[in-house]
Amino acid sequence: MATIPSMRFALLLTCEHATCAIPAEYESYFRSRRAQRDLRHHRGFDPGALDVAQFLSDRTGAPLICGEVSRLLVDLNRSPHAPDLFSTYLQRAGATIRARILERYYFPYRQRVETTVAQMIAERRTALHLSIHTFTPILAGQRRDFDVGVLFDPDRELETQVSRMLLGSLREDGLRVELNRPYLGVDDGLTTYLRTRFPSTAYAGIELEVTNRIARFRSERRVRWCQALLRGIQQTAAQGGPVDAPPVIPPSTDA
Q1: Measuring CA to CA, which of 32, 57, 191, 193 is 20 to 30 A from 158?
Q2: pLDDT per residue over 172-217, tens digit each?
Q3: Is the preceding omega at residue 246 within 30 degrees of 0, hence cis?
Q4: Is 188:76 a contact under the CB 8 Å cutoff?
Q5: Residues paired with residue 57 on neighbouring β-strands, in sequence order
Q6: Domain 9-237 bears CATH identifier 3.30.420.10
């Protein structure tokens, strides 16, 4: 399991909304002009998120697990019974087709992430899971005037400590950072599910929400931002500690 030299955490990076890809067998659901537009913009994926995640993975050696399909086909960052698991474009798809999508793309992705975290903890490493996302600066007329959001569960002490350390480090680099904005860290998502699987002393699940303006930055500015994120993560992860003992993990109910 890859870890960063001097890091006391085991770092895992994921990017659920990495792509706007639609497999050929489902393209018929996305042929309208509106669907094509949505696929290219933030409704279809998180612009810039994969670039950030790949940069961090390349510089740290941490494993990176990425989604392979658009969130409009199935949202890997939603629970299995969430009303927005499938987009409106799948309304005319029958139960059999939806089940096939889940079995091919959704459950394998979620299981891979969960298994990786379990392996880290079994090796007596504290797992730091960073789920990389981007957000649109203006939504429903509301301006989000900050650069990075750090999403966490304030009832979990380790996550709170990690998030506040990230906040301080990133602000020192000149980024405008907020905690639990533009969403709450306890909203439905992959990290929220994984908190039910692993103890708070062994798993810290943080969503990093970066403004999707980063996708339009010139390469030099984009690299500066990524380097600031890298420094913040390295400084924070170096403060982590080993797990005293691997927890007993019950069978998954994510189905």
Answers
A1: 57
A2: 999 999 999 999 999 999 999 999 999 999 999 999 999 999 999 9
A3: no
A4: no
A5: none
A6: no
- Residues lower than pLDDT 50 in the chain: 1-6, 241-251, 253, 255
Q: What is the C-alpha separation between 114 and 181, in angstroms, rounded?
A: 25
- Could you give the C-alpha distances from 193 to 79, 123, 132, 133, in angstroms and in order? 7, 21, 16, 17
Query: What order of strands is seen across the sheet that includes strand 9-15?
Result: 64-66, 9-15, 126-135, 203-211, 148-151, 177-179
d(CA 39, CA 253): 31
Residues paired with residue 238 on neighbouring β-strands, in sequence order:
none
The residue behind tokens 């403060």 is 239
Q: Where are the domains of the chain?
A: 9-237
Any idea how long the chain is? 255
User: In angstroms, rounded to a whole number, what is the distance separating the alpha carbons of residues 235 and 7?
Assistant: 9
Nearest to 45 by CA among 21, 79, 65, 24: 21
